[in-house]
C-alpha cells in the first residue's frame, strides 16, 4: 500500500464501521480495528525493513495511518453515542499532541490526545469521549489524554512546561474546527505576549534534569537514544524552541536571510539536522521492532543485532556493532553542536539583540578579542576564526584565565570553522596555547569543548580515529575520546589534592614530578591507538613519537611520553595479576622502569587512567595494591632489595613475629616459627603473623578441625577471611565455592601449607558493590557455608547455580576463554593466567581443575574487568617444582578451558572447536 491509497483506506474503514451509516456492534468494531491496526503496523514494518523508507519516513507513515484510524473511530463513536435531535454533531475538537501531534510515531509510542471544548462538556460529550478512550484502551493502545477548553490549556500550560510543550505540537484531527481555531489563535497570542524567555528557561531546566538521569555525556557505551544527551529529545527541544519562538513547522524554514531570525541555520546545518533526525529515528524503530516494546536504551545485547539489521559489518579492526556505535556517537556530538549553535541564536533572535556593548582592555585587543554582551568574541569587524584560526585557542584560554563565558556566537563560529585547526598543526603559538589549556585549570571542561566542536580531531588528526570509538565491553563506561578527557580531568584532581583521601600516594607524588608536560601529553595519547588492531600500547608509543614533535615537545619529552604510553598498563597489571610478594615480580618491573621519576609518572598516570574508566572501577583494595607496588619498586630503585636478601628478610620477619608475641612462652613461639615455610614469612606483616599464631594455638588447644576468622578492613575496602584446617586436594576450590554461594567475590588469596600438614589460607573478599563484605549476618553465614562445604554437606554445584546471574543485556559481550602459562615471571612457581567470562563459581571450577591435575596453588590474584575475569595462579607440582613439560601443560590447558566455559553453553562443559583454537593460539 502506498500513501496515495491512504485516503481510500480510511474511507473503506469507515464504510466497514458504518455500513449504510449504521454502526456495527462494538465487539465487531473492536475486531475490525485490531485487524486494521495490525495491518498498519505490518505495512509500515515491511516498508521499513525492506528499506523502502528510513526511520523518519516510517514514523510519518505510521502517524498518517494512525490519523485515519483515529478519524474512523471518531466517526464511529459519534454514531454510537448520537446527539440529541437538533444538537451539533460534535462539540469538541480531537487534537493530536506530543509526538503524535508532530505527525511522527514509533511502533510502540504513546498516543497523546486532547479533547478540546469551547464550553463545559455536556453529558453526551463526556459519554462520547469515554467511549472513544475505552475503545482505544481495548485496542491495546497507550493513550495520554486530557479534556480542556482553550483557556484551561493556557492556564495549565503556564503551570506545567510538559503540558505547554505538548500544546506546541498540537495538531487538529477532526471534530469542531472552530474550537481548534479559537485555541490556535489564543495560543499564538499567548506565545507572542509571554515571549520565549520563560519557556526557554523551563526547557533548559527540564533538559538538565533529564541529562542528570540518563547521562551527562553523549558518549556512554549503553546510551539512551531518546532521552540521553545528544539524543532525540535534545533535537526535539530545538524544534520546540524554534516553533515556540517563530511558529515554524520545520527546521529548514530557518535557512536563508529572509527566514525568521534572519538565517539562524545554514543549508549545510539544516541537512545535518535532517540526517541526525533520520538516523536516530531509524535506530529507534529498530529498537522497538527487535525488543517488541518501547525500548529506548541501546544495550550491549541489542547493539550487534541492530548493527546487523542496519548493514554494519566488520571493517578492519572494528566489528559492525562498534561501527554502529561510532556513527551514533558522532551523531550525538552533532546534536550537541546544534544545541550550542542554534539555541542561543533562537534566544537572541526571539528576544531581540540586547544593548550590545563592545569593549575590551589592551590585553584582549592585542589577542584579537573583544566583549559582546559581557562575553568573549573575536574582535570585529576584521578578526574572525576562518582567517585567524589561532583565535580559536586564544578565546578559550582567555575565557579560562578571566573566568568569562564565550559568547554563543563565538561558540557557533568555533564549531563552524573547526576545520581551520588543520592550519595550526606545528604552529608554535598554537602548541603553547593547546598545552597550556590541557594542563591548566578546568582542563577537562575546555578539552571537552574543543572535542565537541571538532577542533581536536583537526588539530591532532590521529584523534579522529578514537572520536566516538566504543570498546565493546562492560568495563569501559565511556568512548575512548571521552575516557581520555576524563583521565586529564582526574590528573588535575590529583594535582589539586582533591583525591588525597582515595589516592594519597599519587596525590603526594604529583607535587614531586619533574616531567609534568610529558605526563599530561601521555594521558592525552595513552589510548590514541585503540581501534587500530594489535597492541594499542605499542602502536600508541610509535604514534607518540610522531605527535609529540608536532606539539613542540623536546626529544627528551617525546621519549618519556612514548615510554609512558608503551608501559601505561605495567603497574596495574603487576598489582592485579602478579604476586607482589615474589621478589622477581618487583625486580622485573624495576628493570623496566629504572628511574624513580618514571615510576612516579607511571603511578600517577595509572591512577588517572583507572579512575577515568568509570565510577565503580576504583576501590580501596586496588589503591592498596598499587601503593604496595610503588613502594616495593621504589625500594629496589633506591638499592634496598636484592634477591640474595631473601633469607635475611625471612629472618627479620621471624624476629618481628616473635617480638609481637609477648604472651607466648618460648616453646610456643618456637613451635609457631617452625610451622611456616619461607614464602609464608614473606607474605604477611608481623601483626598478621601474631594473629595467625593465636588462631593456631587456640585451634590446637581445642583440637578444632576447622577454624574460620573474618576481619573487615574498611581502609582497604575488603574483608579478610582466614581458614585453618587440614590440607587436602581441592581445598581452595571448596572454599572459593562456598564464598561464591555466600555472595562474596574473591579479589586476592594466599594459600599456605604448613609443616604440620595444616593449610592456612587467606582470602580477601568484597561484596557485589566492590566494598568490604561486612554485614554481621552475612559474615556468620559465610563461616557456616565454608564448614558445610568442607564437610561435604553443601552441594556446591547446585547452590552456585542458584546464585543470581548477570543481566541478559550483558550476554552479547563475548569473552573467549584463554589460558597462558608463564615460567619466567617467577623463579619458583609456574604462573597460570586464565581469561574468561565472569560468573558465580568460576573460581571454584578453575581451581578444581588445577587441583585435579595434581598441582598445588600457592597464591591467587583475581581481577574482573566488567564481565571479563582475569585470574592468575602461582602453582607447583607435587614435588614442589615448576611445570615445564608440554605433555603436562597440554592436559592442564584442556582442563582449564573446560572449566572456563559456562555450563549452559551448548556442548556441556566443553568449548567449541573454534573457541579452543582461539584460546590455544592465544
Short synopsis of the structure:
With 922 residues, the protein is of the alpha+beta class.
Please tell me about this protein's structure.
With 922 residues, the protein is an alpha+beta fold. The protein is 55% helix and 11% strand. It is built from 38 helices and 14 strands. The strands form 3 sheets. An 8-stranded antiparallel sheet has the order 7-8-10-9-13-14-12-11, with helices on both faces. A hairpin with a 4-residue loop joins strand 7 and strand 8 (718-726). Helix 11 (267-291) crosses helix 13 (320-351), helix 21 packs across helix 27 and helix 22 crosses helix 27. It is globular, with a radius of gyration of 34 Å. It starts with 5 loop residues before the first helix and ends with a helix. 43% of the residues are buried.
Estimated radius of gyration: 34 Å
The mean pLDDT is 87
Strand content: 5-15%
The CATH superfamily of the largest domain is identified as ACT domain
Q: What is the strand arrangement across the widest sheet?
A: 7-8-10-9-13-14-12-11
Summed up, the domain count is 4
Biggest sheet features = 8 strands, antiparallel
User: What CATH architecture of the largest domain do you see?
Assistant: 2-Layer Sandwich
Number of separate helices: 38
Q: Could you give the distance between the termini?
A: 54 Å
Domain HD: 480-596
Family: Belongs to the GlnD family.
Cofactor: Mg(2+)
Region (Uridylyltransferase): 1-359
